[in-house]
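User: Can you help me understand a structure? I only have the sequence.
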Amino acid sequence: MNLSHTVKWFLLVPLISVVLAGCGAFEPPPPSYPHATVTFDVTVPADTPSNVVVTVVGSNPSLGGGAAPGFHLRRQESHYTGSVRLPVGEEISFELWVDEAWRPELSAEGAPVPRHSFQVEGDMTVTATVERWGEPGLGPR
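Assistant: Let's start by predicting it. Here is the structure, written out as tokens:
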């Protein structure tokens, strides 16, 4: 069976397209950035009810991008913990909140606590100690 040159050409073009597409010739692969596992370890006041949810609301999208719902931590006795993957080298800032009533973290004197911040340098643990919780409010937006 002898195929004409035209038929051979129409069979070859789709084959070349498939091969080139598989090599990423038409669309570059997405950039990859190194990520690290960051574990939050938050110590809460002794009067914190055991059924509340502690939430990290931070600057990275994995932490809510500065808005609710944020990243929920799990209770481990007097600590709340949780791990998330974040880009290495990124500067992260975050606030701590409790409940759906959005009670903010306060200092021992009752003043609002400034945002916590750190730079992701690889797998790491970020610790924080909450002195007391404030009154319910509007929460992060």
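Now, to help you interpret it: The chain has one helix and ten strands. The chain has a mean pLDDT of 84. Let me know which part you'd like to focus on.
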